[in-house]
Amino acid sequence: MKEEYKQYSERTAEKKRNHLPCSETSVEGSQFEDGRSDDLTALDEKALLQRCYTSKPYNTQHSMKKSEAEDVAAERKKQTVVEQVMLDQLSRAVISDPEQNTRGDVSKEVQGHLGLGTAPMRFRKRTLHETKIRTKSGLTENMLSNKLRFDSRIVSRNGRDACRDLIGFFFACDRSLTVYEFRQFGKNRTNALPFIQKGVYQHQRGQKKGKAYDLTDFYIGANLTFQSIDHNLPKSIKQNPILTLRVTSIDEVAMDFLKDSCLEFNQGYSEQLIDDSKVFKKIQGMLRETLSKRGVRVVTGLGKYFRHIDKNGNGFLSQTDFKEALKLFHLEVPEQDFESLWLILDDSKSDKVNYGEFIHAIAGEMNEYRKAFVRKAYMKLDFNKTGSVPIVDIRKCYCAKKHPLVLAGKATEEEIKSSFLETLGESCSSPEEVSYSEFEDYYEGLSIGIADDDDFVNILRNPWGI
Hints:
Elements: H1 2-5, H2 13-18, H3 24-28, H4 42-48, H5 60-95, H6 104-110, H7 141-145, E1 147-154, H8 159-162, E2 166-171, E3 176-185, E4 189-199, E5 223-227, H9 235-238, E6 242-250, H10 252-261, H11 271-309, E7 316-318, H12 319-328, H13 335-345, E8 352-354, H14 355-363, H15 368-381, E9 388-390, H16 391-397, H17 404-407, H18 413-426, E10 433-435, H19 436-447, H20 453-464
Antiparallel strand pairs: 1-2, 1-6, 2-3, 3-4, 5-6, 7-8, 9-10
């Protein structure tokens, strides 16, 4: 997983400025000392305590064993899905092939010799032993082998949907794709079920709207959009007319092979896409200093505020709502830059934008490597996949034994745990439970001031034991 997600880069001087190490200076600025920073509230200081979990949680041998076990389980899961996809597609291709209906007795039926006359083909009898095993025009295993496997997740604020385990395949032979969901029933029973049926699909949003998917559309972080009404999906997903899947990893070996065999492959980026990226980076740069230390309070506060004013519950708000929120949270964005941002986000020209996309646009978004660990931590808590976790369960599972302040004797485990629960609970709409979106927003805000991926992952590994 790490090789698929992590962008290898050395720590720079900027990281040392932005990153908050758990040293004596940070201890003195914590809630357990008299000193307090002028621009931080008590909740900000309590949230910053979570950044101290940057040391490795396990010894090297334990870490290697755990990583190897996870890799074996992931490979076994992917192999299960691949076998099911090949079985489904080959069977469907042969059985439904029109050539199956060209056997000798069909001409007799058409002439009325068998008493059926010109009856529709579905009423004509075809026994199993008369079905050909292979047809000339059917898809063969060799053709289906030229495929690209990719992992994906649903971009959703709903916990049950966001944590669905999806594996997709893009077939180079006809530029079709399919997505399967890996399901586990109990400890030993697993199954792979079709989520998006095999077909040729087009982009539903963005610069490529209306164009069919091709090989260049598959890379880590890419969004695949579908019309929800066209598929047999859960009701929670169909509430949004557009289903968005985010590619979290791809089969690099298969991609390299398909690139070499595809003469038309050219993964260039349009000027419009580059200009959009510049707008996002400019606004995020303006707010970086503000969010680096109080990111948790701002990001979770924005999420809570937007959920409160979203009376329809569809996740979309107007331009006026967003401007009021920026003013309320003291986030200064020039009017011209806001208008440029709005033109990008409101690509459907509906005068409404998804507030999750808006938060990511102004504050940035965790990369898929980090998000994978956030989902893993939440799935450990929400083992029944209900989409919400009781606060009492979070209190039971959170472990503060390895927090540097606890190890140094400057704080107790209960004090660290209480500070975490207080800052997390502040962002929740209900005092009794935490939803996936609230849990993700918390770590989204915490992620802003942490430059190194390994440091952020350790912040999740140490207290949650993942």
